[in-house]
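Researcher: Batch entry, complex prediction.
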Amino acid sequence: MKYAYYPGCSMECNAAAYEMSTQVVARALGFKLVEVDDWNCCGATEFFSQDELTASAVVARNLALVAPELNQLVAPCAACYLNLAKTDRLMQDNATINAKVNEALAAGGLKYKAGRVRVRHLLDVIYQDFGEERIREKVVRSLEGLRVAPYYGCQVVRPIKGDDSTEYPLHMDELFKWLGAEVVDYPVKAHCCGGHMTQISEPQAFELIRRLLQSAVDYEADMILCMCPMCQLNLDAYQSRVNGFFGTNFRMPIVYFTQMLGVALGFELKELGFGKELVSAEPALRAKLAQRASV
Amino acid sequence: MGAHSEGNHGSAFLREVIADTPGGERIVHCLQCGSCGGSCPSGADMQYTPRTIFAMINANQRDAVLSANTMWYCVSCYLCMTRCPQNIPITDVMYALKRLAIAEGKARGTDAPALAKTFTDILEKYGRSFELGLASRYYLLNRPMAMMKMGPMGLSMFTRGRMALLPTKIKNLDQLQAIIKKARELGEAS
Amino acid sequence: MSKAKGKLAVYWAASCGGCDIALLAIDDKILKVSEAFDVVFWPCAADGKVHDIEKMADGEIDVCLFNGGIRTSEQEYMAQLLRKKSKVLVAFGSCAHEGCIPGLANLNNRQECFDTAYRDTPSTENPQNVRPRHETQVPEGTLYLPVFYDTLKTLDQTVPVDYYLPGCPPEADRIWDAIVAILEGKLPPPGSVIGSDTTVCDECPRKRTEKKIKKFHRTWEIIPDPDTCLLEQGLLCMGIATRAGCGALCPQVNSPCIGCYGPNNDVKDHGARMMSALASVIDSQDPGEIQQIIEEGIPDPVGSFYRFGLAHSLLRRGKLAADGNGHK
Amino acid sequence: MSDETFEPKIVGFMCNWCSYRAADLAGSARIKYPPNVRIIRVMCSGRIDPTFVLKALSLGADGVMVAGCHPGECHYIDQNYKAMRRFGMLKHMLAAMGVEAERVQLVWASAAEGQQLADAVEKLVADVRALGPLNWPGNWNEHKDRLEAIESMVKEHAEAMEVLP
Amino acid sequence: MAERVGIYVCHCGSNIAGTVDVEEVARWAGQHIKDVVVSKDYKFMCSSLGQAMIEEDIKTKGLTRVVVAACSPHLHEKTFRRACANAGLNPYLCQMTNIREHVSWVCTDKAAGTEKAKALVSASAERVKYQRPLEPMYVDVNPATLVVGGGIAGLQAALELADAGHPVYLVEREPSIGGHMAQFDKTFPTLDCSACILTPKMSEAGQHENITLLTYSELEEVSGSVGGFTVKIRKKARYVDYDKCTGCGICSEKCPRKVIDTVFEAGIGERKAIYSPFPQAVPRIPVIDVDSCLYFTRGKCQVCSKVCPTNAIDYEQKDELIEVKVGNIILATGWKLFDCARMPQYGYGRLANVFTNLEFERLCNAAGPTNGKIVLRDGKTEPKSVAIIHCVGSRDVNYNEGCSAVCCMAALKLGHLVLEKTNAEVYSFYIDMRTNQKMYEEFYQRLLAEGMHFVRGKVAEVTDAARNPDEQGKLIVQCEDTLLGRQRRIPVDMVVLMSAMEPQADAKELGLKCGISCSMAGWYTERHPKLDPVATMTDGVFVAGVCQGAKDIPASVAQGAAAAARVQGMITKGRVMIEPIVATIDEEGCSGCRICNNLCPYNAIEFDEEKKVSRVIAALCKGCGTCVAACPAGVITGAHFNNQQIFAEIEGALWDAAAAKTEEETATQSVSA
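Model: C-alpha cells for the complex:
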C-alpha cells in the first residue's frame, strides 16, 4: 500500500518522536509513505483567521503537489489533516472558491481538481486499512498490564464526520486493545488540549490542560497517547508550568500512539524517539513491562 | 436562491457574516438553545457565548460583536459545531468574525492578531513554520516579560532536540509567494 | 395477372446498398415482379437515366421503392423528382424510413464528417487535405458536386411518403408480403408501416419473467443463457421496443436485438420508449447508484437507443452550435 | 450567450399530489417566481415519459422541469423512483446529444414546499437564461447554399437534355 | 367531426384579473385556438351564474368540450365537472386550467401573466379535444374495519366503531393491548393514574361482541382497495392454547427463567420466559418467549406445562396465517423511543444513572420494578438531585428535526413525581417550554410553585469528569444558562433524558403494504394537514395517533374517534366512487415482454401465461400511469392522461415557440414547392 505523506512542520523537529515512530511503524506494517515534494506549511489556524482565500490557496498547493499516481494523502498532525481535508471539501462545495484557488495556483503553474486526493489521518489508515487481524499478527510484545488513555483531541474527529464518533471516538481504543493494553475509558478523550490558547491566554489554556491530565489521573492511566504534535506539546511541555500554576503534581507521560504501537511491534525505545518527551515515559514503561517479564 | 436568503431580509451585519462564512446561511436557524456556549471549553471566559453573538448579529450590533473577545477564545475544537442542533458552522463563523475584526482593527485586548501576523510572515518567508523564530519574534515584539517564563521550557525542548535554531526553507519559495500574491489580489478584487 | 404492366422505380440514396440486395433476396419471385412491372429506373441493376424520369409525366410511375436517407442536394432532388413522378412512394428499408446508421452522423456536422473521412481515419492518405467542394474550377470551366448537408433527413422529412417498409434491411419475406399487397391492391391506409404491430418479443422464444436489472453488460462480457430473456441477463436487447417482423433473428442466435425494425405504430420516439422502459426496471433507489449503473453499462446511449432512428427521432440530431448557419 | 430580452420557455411536468400542489401552495402563499414555466399536470412523476421532455424540446422549449414527490414520499408508494431512474437515463442521453444538463432538471417538492418549488423554478429559469435560447428546431436548418445547389442541378440537367437529340 | 370547444376565463374578482388581462385571454383564445366556438370571461366562474352560463352554452351552442381557466383543479374541478354533467356533457370532457395559483398569484407583471395564462389556456384547449368520456366506477363497502395498533388511539377507534354496531378486527403485535400508555404512572396535567383510565377501555375492547382481538399478531399483506380489502394477518405462536387458558398466571409464577424485559419494563425490570406483560393485560393469555425459554433453548424444563391446571401449554403450536375481509383500515401504530446512545455526550449507556424517560416512567410506576420508588441504578439509593433534560433527539436536524410535542409536559409531570416522592432537587433543562393546551400552562405554574428549578438551555454534555471536589462522584450537567448568558455545571445524582418520539422502525414497510406514504420525518402522511388529518391519499386507509405525528393522549384519542367517524361515514354510505382514471393494455399489441409486471406497487398488472400478455386489473389500478410511460411497445393507455392528450397539451403550451419554429421550417422547406 502506497500513500502520499504530508508530515507538516512539527514533525521536522518538535514532534521528531512522532516522525521517527511513524516511519518505523510504517515500515513494519509494510506501507509506503511518499513524502509530498517541497510541501509547505498548512497555515495552522492562524492563516485562516486572516484571509480564507489565501489560506486555502496555501493549503491547496500541497494538494496540487501530490504525485498524480497517488490519490490518498496521509497526515499525522490533526491540524494539518483538518486544513487539508477542509480545503479540499470547501473547493468541492464552493465553485467560486474553487475557481479562485485554482486561479491563484495557476500563478505558480499548478492546478488541483477538488476531490482528487482523499485526505486521511494516520490513525485512520492504520485502523481501517490494516485492521485488527493483521495488526494482531504483528504484535511481538503485548502491552498487557499497561493502562493507556487514548487522547484524540478535536480536529481529527471533528467537524468532518468519519466512521468514528465525533463525541466518543473508539478507533484508538480498539487499536490498543488489539495490542493487549488496558484502555482507560475516560470522559475527556476528545476534549480540547488548549490548542494555541497557550499563546493567547495562559490561564485558560492551563485549565484545559489540567482537566485532561486530571481525568487521566482519576482513571489511573499510566500514560496518555496522542495523535497530534500540538496536543503532545501542550500536555507534555506545559505540564510543569501547569503544576506550578495550580500547585498540582502531575507526572503523566504523553507519548505518540505510534511510539507505543512500535513498542508492541517489538522495536527499541530509542528508534521510536522515546526520551524526547519532557515527562519521561520510561519509568512507567519499565515498571509495567518489567512486571510482566517477571510474571 | 429563495426570497429568504437572497433578499434584503435580516440585519445588514447578518447578511455580511453569511456572505463571509461557507454554510453561513444556517445562522438564521439558530434556536438560541445554547448548546454551543455550553459545549465550549472557553465558554466560561467568553465575554459573549456564541449563541449571544448570533443574537447580537441578528440585532445588527456590529461594533460590539467585532470588538468582543469571543472569537479569540475559540480554540477550533468544533464541539459546538458538531453538537449544534441546527447545523450552524459555528467555528467557521468565528473565523469569519476574526477576519472581519482584524480587517477593521477591532481586535482589541488580545495578542491573537499579532500572533497570527507573525505566523503568516514566517510562512511567507520560509514556506514552513519555525517555532523558535515564531516564539522569539512574537514574544520579543509583543510580550517581552512572558519570554522569561518560557525560558526553562524552551531549554528542555532544545536539549531534547525538539527545537530548531534555523528555519527550513522550501525549494520553490517563488512559486508559493506567487500563489499567495495572486490569492491576495483575488481576495481584494471581490 | 393479365392487367397492363405497371411501372416500377427503385432508387438508392444515402444507404449501404443492402436494401437493393435484399430486394433480390426474394429469389425467383423477382420474376413475378418483372411479370407485373416494367422496371423503368433502378440505377443499381439497370441502365436508366435521370433525364428519362424527368421527361415522364407526373404520376407515371406506379410504385417507387426508395431506399436511403437524404444527405446531399442530389438526393433531395431525386426524392422530389421521384415523388412527383410516382403514384406510390415507398420508404424502403431503415435508411429511408428512419435514417439508420448514416443518420448517426447527425451527432456531428458536415465539417466533422469530412474531417473523419478525409483526414482522421488511419487509412487516409491526403497530404494536400483535399475536401469535396460544391464548385471546382478547371480550365474547361466549373465542375459541380452535390452539396453535403449537416443533417441527414429521412425520406418523409423531405417529401410525403405513402408507405414504409422497415428493417435494415427489410426481411425478404416481408418484402414479398408488401409486393403481394401492392399487386393485389390490399394496401393499408396511406402513411402506414407495412408490417406487424407487435414487438420482437412476440417472435422471441426465450423465457421471460418479471424484470429487475442491477447491471448492464456489453455483449462480450457475458455468455448469455440461451433460453432466458437477454434483457433479464443485463444485455441491452432492443427487442421489447422494436417492431416484430424479422422473426427475432438476432435473439435466436444469442445476440441482443439492435432495433433495426424501428418502433411500433404510434411510438413517437424509439429511443425514448426504450430508455423509459429500461430505466423503469433498474434495480436501485439510490440516485448515485442509478447513475453509475447507467453510465457504466451504457457508455454510448445514442448509439444504443438510436442506432437506427436518430434522424427520425424527436430531436433528429445532436446540438449544433448556433452561428447563424448551423456550423459549429 | 445570454440575451437581455430572452425569456426562456419552460415546460414543467408535475405530479398531481406533491409538486403540483406545491405550485398551488406557492400561489396561495403569494410567493413570486418567474412566469416562464408552463405547468402540465400528470397523476404521478412515474407517468412522465422521456418522450414528453424530448417533445417539448423539439417544439422549441428552452428548458424542462420534471417534478415529483420526494423519494420515499410518493403518493403511489415508490413510483417516483421510476421517474428518478428515467431522468438519470435521459440526462445521460441528452448529454450525448449536446443538451446542457441545466436545461432539464429534476425537482422533488412535497405539497408543503411551495417555497422550495418556487426556488427551483427560479434556479431553472436563471440557469436557462444564462445558457441562452435552445431553439432546437433551428438545429435542423440546412445551409443556404442548399437551394442554389438544387437549382443549379436542375439547370445542368436541362442543359444536358438540350444537347441530346 | 371537429370538436366544439367552449373557453371560460374567470376573473376571480381581482384575484386573477389583477395580474392577468382576462378579457384579452378570452378574446385571444376565441380568435387563435382552432375549434373554439365560444370564449368568454366572467367575474366568478364558480358562482351559480357562472356555472349556469356554461350549462346554457353546452345546450344552445352544442359544445362538446369545455375549458375553465380559473383556480386549481384541486378546488373546483368537481364543481365544473358537475356543471357539465348537468347539461348532459360527460364530466371528463371538461378541463380546468389553473391561472390563479399558477399565474396571477405568483406573477408580478401583468403582461407576463397574461402571456403565461394564454399558454396554459392553449395547452388545455388542445388537450381537451382529445379527452374521452369516462364513466365513474362504484364499489360496495364492507362494514368490517381493521384497526392496526392497540394503543390508546387504536382502542378508541375500535370501541367507537364497535359501539356503533360494526365489526372490528383489532391487531396488536405485543401480547397485550394498551400500548405505551399502559407503561406510564400518571398522566398530565390532571395526574390521574394512567392504568385507572386505560384498563377499563382495554377490558371493554377485550369483551366487546363486535371486536375480534388479534394480539401477538402482525399484518402480513394487504390487497384490494377501498370498500373491499383482503388482509392477511400472522398470529404468532403463543404456545398457549387460547381457549384452554384461564389466565391464572401460575405458569409465569413457576417459570424458572427470568429475563430483562426490554419492552414493557423498558429494560429496567424483569419478566419470565412465559409471561403476560403486566397484571391487567388484555387478553391475559401469556406467551412463551422462545429465545429465552429453557425448553425451547435447551430442550429441558416444561415446568409451565406441568403446573398448568388446564393443560393449555402447547409447545407444538405454529404461527397461524388468517385472512380477513374489511372495507376500511385504520393505522394507529404509534411510535418508538429515540435511541439515546446516539448522543454520546449525554452518557446514556456509559453512565449508569442516566435514564431515558420511559425507564423513569417505570421507576415511578407503582406496579413497576421498584414498586414506584425512585432510586438510582443500584436499586436502593434515593437521589438527592435529578436533572431532566428536554429535547433529546428532537428539535435537532442531526436526529429528528421536529418537536416531539409531549416532552415538556411529560418532563413537568416527572418532575412533579420526583418532588412528591423524594426530597431531591429537580432541575429541568429546556430550550422552550411548550405548554399550549388546556390546563397545561397552569400545570407549569404549579411546578414553578413546587420549587422545580428551570434552566433555559440545551444541555451540552453530561459527564463524570469532575473539576473540583463538589463534583466528585456526581453526574455533572454542563450547559449554557441562556437567561444568564453564562456556562453552568450542575452536579446531580440522576439524569432523565426526555427522548424524542420516533416513527416505528417498520412504519414505512407497513405503509407500503397499505399503500400510504410517510413524510421525510417518517410519520404517515395525512390527506390534508389541517382539513383532513386522519384520511390518507389512499381511499379507505386512515391514520390515528402518534403514527401520524408526535402528539399527546388527548389528541390521540381525538384522532382515534375522528378516524372511526370517517369510517362510519363510508359504511353508512354503502358504496364509494372510484375515479375511472386507470390504465388499459391493448392485448393485440402486447408482446408479453413483462417490463410492466413488477412496476405496479398495487399488483394491478397480471400476466396471462397462456396468452402471453399482461393485463391491468382495473379495480386495483390507481391510475398513476407509470406502466403507461414504461411500456416499450406503447400499448398501455392511461385514461385521461394518454399520450395523445399530453402531446397536445405540450404543443398547446408551446404554441408561441411552435409558431416560431413553423416560420423557420417554412423558410427552409420552400424549395420543395
